[in-house]
């Protein structure tokens, strides 16, 4: 029996070392990037579990059952946004991307049209000087206060409904769209002469803000009910104050002149109505402000 030569032994040992080195290299690659093996031709792979998509989940091994579930689509989209933001900033990793999205005001989603902040819904009675009182807000008073202020001056206003009912419409509808009922009520008193209707608009028109009454005896628009008239008044003010509709009824179906207001959203305070709602409007907001202040006096 021949014994292997020294050269043969060295060759065998060298081959074994090569095989061992290759195995270690493959193991290192797998640890660094444990990508799933390619599927046989024509077999779909579920990227969440690395097994054929048609496999029966009940047949999964314990290790598969313990695998992390596929992330929801919204998170995938968020990751895409994070990566694009980081690339734009010149970064190559994702550290801090979530914080960037969460705390950069420029990247925060804007509120839907018509949405009002909690601050604008806080009831208020504040009346500022010089026509600076904001038109937006929710008034802290009651319909009884509004009707009482009217009835102290005029015992029998010529509205088509009792003053208390009319005031209730203003309080409810104004709050629904984020406008101050006391300001709209004061405007109505100014436009109708405290319900006396001494101008070209008649009581039966239910037109409480002179909408369409452009002078020279033009009577303006007419509305079928007092509530419809209040809706038209409030909707018309929405067109002056807001860029977007504030309720399902703030549109041209309620107020035929709704779309004629231009520019939209230009009136922020009482003084902004001068030359807009009333033309030329000199002293218009001052007269309304006087009533608003009196309504809120305690």
* Total number of beta strands: 4
**Can you list the strand order of the major beta sheet?**
1-2
- Listing every helix as H and every strand as E from the N terminus to the C terminus, the arrangement reads HEEHHHEEHHHHH
N-to-C CA distance: 123 Å
User: What is the 3D shape?
Assistant: globular
Mean pLDDT: 75
List the helices and strands and how they pair.
Elements: H1 6-32, E1 45-46, E2 51-52, H2 62-65, H3 73-89, H4 97-103, E3 123-124, E4 138-139, H5 143-153, H6 163-177, H7 181-192, H8 226-241, H9 284-295
Parallel strand pairs: 3-4
Antiparallel strand pairs: 1-2
Helix pairs in contact: 3-4, 5-6, 6-7, 6-8, 7-9
Give a quick precis of the structure:
This protein is an all-alpha fold and 298 residues long. The chain has two domains: 34 residues, no CATH class; 177 residues, Lysozyme, CATH 1.10.530.10.
List keywords for this structure.
single chain; 298 residues; mainly alpha; Lysozyme; 2 domains; two-stranded antiparallel ribbon; two-stranded parallel ribbon; 9 helices; 4 strands
Textual characterization of the structure:
This protein has 298 residues and is mainly alpha-helical. It has 2 domains: 74-107, no CATH class; 119-295, Lysozyme. 41% of the residues lie in helices and 3% in strands. The chain contains 9 helices and 4 strands. 24% of the residues are buried. Residues 25-68 and 91-119 have low confidence and may be disordered.
């Amino acid at each position: 029996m021949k014994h292997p030569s020294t050269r043969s032994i060295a060759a065998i040992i060298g081959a074994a070392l090569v095989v061992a080195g290759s195995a270690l290299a493959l193991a290192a690659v797998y640890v660094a990037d444990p990508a799933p093996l390619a599927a046989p031709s024509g077999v779909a792979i579920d990227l969440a579990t690395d097994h054929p998509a048609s496999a029966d989940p009940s047949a999964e091994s314990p290790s598969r059952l313990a695998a992390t579930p596929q992330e929801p689509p919204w998170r995938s989209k968020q990751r895409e946004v994070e990566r694009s933001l980081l690339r734009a900033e010149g970064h190559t990793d994702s550290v801090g991307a979530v914080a960037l999205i969460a705390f950069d005001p420029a990247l925060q989603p804007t509120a839907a049209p018509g949405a009002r902040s909690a601050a604008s819904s806080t009831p208020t009675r504040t009346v500022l000087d010089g026509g600076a009182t904001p038109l937006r807000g929710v008034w802290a008073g009651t319909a009884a206060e509004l009707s009482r202020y009217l009835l102290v001056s005029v015992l029998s206003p010529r509205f088509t409904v009792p003053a208390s009912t009319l005031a209730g419409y203003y309080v409810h509808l104004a709050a629904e769209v984020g406008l101050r009922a006391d300001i709209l009520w004061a405007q109505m008193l100014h436009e109708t002469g405290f319900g006396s209707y001494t101008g070209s608009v008649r009581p039966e028109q239910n037109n409480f803000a002179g909408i369409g009454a452009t002078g020279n005896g033009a009577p303006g628009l007419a509305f079928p009910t007092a509530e419809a008239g209040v809706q038209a008044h409030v909707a018309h003010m929405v067109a002056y104050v807001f860029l977007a509709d504030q309720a399902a009824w703030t549109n041209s179906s309620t107020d035929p002149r709704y779309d004629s207001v231009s520019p939209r959203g230009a009136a922020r305070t009482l003084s902004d109505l001068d030359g807009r709602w009333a033309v030329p409007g000199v002293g218009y907001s001052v007269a309304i402000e006087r009533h608003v202040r009196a309504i809120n006096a305690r």
